[in-house]
Amino acid sequence: xxxxxxxxxxxxxxxxxxxxxxxxxxxxxxxxxxxxxxxxxxxxxxxxxxxxxxxxxxxxxxxxxxxxxxxxxxxxxxxxxxxxxxxxxxxxxxxxxxxxxxxxxxxxxxxxxxxxxxxxxxxxxxxxxxxxxxxxxxxxxxxxxxxxxxxxxxxxxxxxxxxxxxxxxxxxxxxxxxxxxxxxxxxxxxxxxxxxxxxxxxxxxxxxxxxxxxxxxxxxxxxxxxxxxxxxxxxxxxxxxxxxxxxxxxxxxxxxxxxxxxxxxxxxxxxxxxxxxxxxxxxxxxxxxxxxxxxxxxxxxxxxxxxxxxxxxxxxxxxxxxxxxxxxxxxxxxxxxxxxxxxxxxxxxxxxxxxxxxxxxxxxxxxx
Length: 368
Description:
Layout: E1 15-23, E2 29-36, H1 40-60, H2 71-83, H3 89-108, H4 118-127, H5 133-152, H6 180-193, H7 197-205, H8 209-213, E3 220-221, E4 226-229, E5 232-236, E6 239-243, E7 251-254, H9 257-265, H10 286-304, H11 311-324, H12 329-336, H13 341-348, H14 351-367
Antiparallel strand pairs: 1-2, 3-4, 4-7, 5-6
Helix pairs in contact: 2-3, 3-5, 6-7, 7-9, 7-11, 12-13
């Protein structure tokens, strides 16, 4: 009897067997590949074990865990399926994709999802304590979301991020803000040279960059001295995208006399947007506006010595100035469109000591 010919691998150096493991909602079968270095029979045995374990889990109403799914594989699927369609391109690239590929996959990538424990996540944050608090917060937020989605897809049972804290050992860089006197000097410079009226608007309203660029003339009520925040412009591949304000923070912001004057000085040539783009009735690109702001800041600094601030620092200056004047945190939260009071408190509560100190010594001087 002739010797049986040795079976050759049919998938690179592996034997592969595809079997139907279930059916989709539309009735189409779901196929899954099983591999073995030994033989096709061994691959078939693995497939049968998988199908049996899945059937037992369904019969006993327990969670079935697909053990071969790694964190890296699921994190990439999470990015494409859950995040890319849900956020603008800038947020996707510079927040979620950056965090996943720069920090999370290099550390957790090869580990099976259901083997990652709370102690592993805690160790990750201990080893990355040199990162800024902002980056660590993004890492924790992203990790939680990845594991939440894995639980919903029966890939693991528990979220190992539960009760994990991310604490940075790095001292947070102080945000640069203008003093009360410098605010007046910057605004005077803008009015005297009729340049960048939007700098005055940011200093007087605290709008985000995207909210400023998204303003339409119909949002501005100079008679009532208010501006309504109804949209935000974000940069995406190939152009811009109109989004709701961050955290859906639709709001109406009161305008100071200086803000009203700034809006009056911006020419309205029949455009829908206050800061129009090259195409009629289209907003300006956020990146091109930021370039314009940097050039203005550099020129102003060279002429006056005043510090160069970003759009976010102009917004932060507005919130800080409100706190200097004794405005309560809940009002600041509403005007700035923060998600919750904790954000406002974390950013501006340090000003309370300055305000209290100033008031105390001012009263002491008056009574002495």
